[in-house]
Amino acid sequence: MSATVNIQHFLPHRKPMLMVDLILELDKEKVRTVFEILPENIFVENGYFAEVGLIENAAQTCSSIVAQDYFDKSDLQNKDKKDVIGFISSIKTLKVYSLPKTGEKIETLATLISSYVTEFYTTCTMKCQTFCGGEFLMECEINLFIKEKEDEKG
């Protein structure tokens, strides 16, 4: 996908937990997102975006690779209102080198290492790197669990 997509259409997260603004690039194996660090963000401490915010940004970025299989590719606005849930099942490695300041934009790149897909859920291992203005901020390898949210009526 080459069109810029508002990730809010595809994640269950809403403010204050939404840590990605836009998907810049997305295919079956990699994704690139951008996020502006605003002063009112819940993970801003003393003018810096905390480590936990970088981890949540990475998880939300990574989930878009696997979660895209749950949506119609031609519906970039998610008009069908499908809802996918997911969580970090483990953090295999994590190295934080620097923290971005408020007002800065971070760019996060994620690559699919492996996935296991069943009829009911998907698990995957992802490699992720975060940058700010060319500076390398963080790298990690995480496992995610993702599935379509069940209809609350049934």
UniProtKB/TrEMBL annotation:
- Which Pfam family is an annotated match for this chain, by its short name? ApeP-like
Q: Which InterPro entries match?
A: ApeP-like_dehydratase, HotDog_dom_sf
Name of this chain's protein: ABC transporter permease
Protein species of origin: Flavobacterium macacae
List the lineage, top down: Bacteria, Pseudomonadati, Bacteroidota, Flavobacteriia, Flavobacteriales
